Amino acid sequence: MRLKGKKVVLLTENLYQELELWVPYYRLKEEGAEVVVVGSGSNRTYTGKYGYPIEVIKKPKRSMSLISMGWSSLEAMHRM
Predict the structure, then answer these.
(1) What is the pTM assigned to this prediction?
(2) 11 is in which domain, residue-wise?
(3) Residue 38, burial from CB neighbour count under 10 angstroms (0-12, 13-18, 19+)
(4) C-alpha pair distances (Å), 63 with each of 4, 8, 59
(5) Are residues 12 and 45 in contact, defined by beta-carbon separation less than 8 angstroms?
(6) Is the pLDDT assigned to residue 29 strictly greater than 70?
(7) Closest CA to 2 of 29, 24, 26, 31
């Protein structure tokens, strides 16, 4: 529980790579962090390459740490 009380933002987009998002998501939760998933705002739910959906919020709070989840999500956001 080394991250108890910490807030972490995972950044994602449509066609995210599932392992790049879900493995850190659950590891951070195991360590006690509050994990929030944020997208570009184009959708409320994004679907990964293998069809797994994830619900996102649009605006993170300033006090949260940001972790970008893989290149495919960053490329998709960059193209928007």
Answers:
(1) 0.74
(2) 7-68
(3) middle
(4) 14, 9, 12
(5) no
(6) yes
(7) 31
**pLDDT band, very low/low/confident/very high, at 40 (cuts 50, 70, 90):** confident
Q: What are the tokens at 16?
A: 């995210």
1 located within any domain: no
Burial 20-34 (b: 16+ CB within 10 A, else e): bbbebbeebeeeebe
Residues 51-76: what's their mean pLDDT?
69
- Reduced to 3 states (helix: H, G, I; strand: E, B; else coil), residue 14 is coil
**Would you mind telling me the total number of residues written for the chain in this entry?**
80
Residue 77 lies in a domain: no
